[in-house]
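Render this sequence as a predicted structure.
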Amino acid sequence: MDKKKSILNVSVSLTLKIITLILNIWTKRVLIQSCGNEANGLNALYLSIIGFFSVAELGVGTAITFCMYKPIVEGNQTKVSALYGLFQRLYLLIGGFILIAGLLFAPFISHFAKDYAELQVNLHLTFILMLLSVVFTYLFGAKTALINAYKNNYISTAITSGGIVLQNILQIAALYITGSFVWYLVCRILSALVQWIITEIIAGRKYHHITKDKQKLDSETKVELTKNIKAMFMHKIGGLLVNTLDSVVISAFIGVAVLGEYNNYTTIMASVGNIISFGLSSLTSTWGHLYAGKKELIQRYSEFSYLICFMAGVVFHLGYYAIIDNLIAILYEEELIIAKDITFVITINGFINFLRQNTLIFRDATGNFYYDRYKPLIEGTINIILSVFFVQWIGVIGAILATILTNLFICHIVEPYVLYKHAFHASPKKYYLQNYSFMILFAMLLILLDKLMIALDSQWLELLINGCIAVGIAAIFCVVILLLYRKEYRSFLERKNEQKTSFEL
């Protein structure tokens, strides 16, 4: 395992994610001020619907990238080239499919925006512009995956983040000058084109020997790929039904204005949460290389990573709950603050979903997509049924509650079972006990925080004091966890010889 490259990947990822988070918040603020919160809701709706069309991706990216790890470790350039060639062809076909599917869907977009008549926006034009901005990313997806497979995630991250920075700067300028949602979306297209050009140049220079060498895959690899792609397709469907259609349900049954308010809260949570989880996911290729050469070490790294993930999740989500209302008032408008019970449920859901990330990262790194292939379909179907039922009964909370239930009773049971059985060859019973205990503890900490928070006339002062209370609670709790698990940490850190061997891979 390349320690220096892993540190570089994480460092670059975290730094650029923080920069793009700040710019994204600023851009959303300007969008709401220039075009209204309804346009913000419409933006979220478009991304959710187009995200559903991206099911055509079928998990191709994850499956093929995993298959690249072993030939890269073995120095089998011929096989890597063959995998890249297949990847390139499939991604171009997928991009074409998404474009056609989106154009066919465009005439029906108004049926998914309940209060669209109140918007001064051309729904069909703006939807198509958003569609094009997404389709263009498939033009360079194969080269991005190739860069990541060689553990150079910092390069692709720099390109993507640079594109987002450019996009935000252009969007802010366009909104100030024109106040137009149309030009806001045009800027997304321009940013995607710039990313495409830069990726082509860098990949062409760095991996010319791979991208230009035309090779064919052997039959054994094709069989493995087909199996993994089918499995990832099911994972993709389930993920979309759980994470994407919530926004569509809220928009269709309640309205884009409410979706915009909800999206303000979830976007900040997702953006900051992604900064944390991205630091972990940046190591996916590193864990993949480790698994390809030293399988016996992978469980120890996973359990160590889980504890880090848990403590980071506690600190972030307690802090989020403490200050999010103040942030919304300061960054956007005080009128966009939602009910505290909705914020509570959003926070619980965010934490429960965050705890899944470590398992999913190691699942992708070890290539165990196949064994729980039916889980996402069951999860997604149950989630959408519960969402439609609950949203009419208890509003926005209903859609979130449906996701919490499917996460708790499907995802957090099946995913660890598959990872432990097929990658670690161990029982997950200890993990289950620890995982559900941690979720109960977090809920108790959140209730405690809610009781200790204070209300003041000053948004800034209230943010500061409640934020300090949250950090204090989280810090005390994390110290207790470190003391309870000190033997495990010491055992992990003291195995220097074994660790040194893994770093030499």
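Summary. Residues 499-505 have pLDDT under 50 and may be disordered. DSSP finds 20 helices and no strands in the chain.
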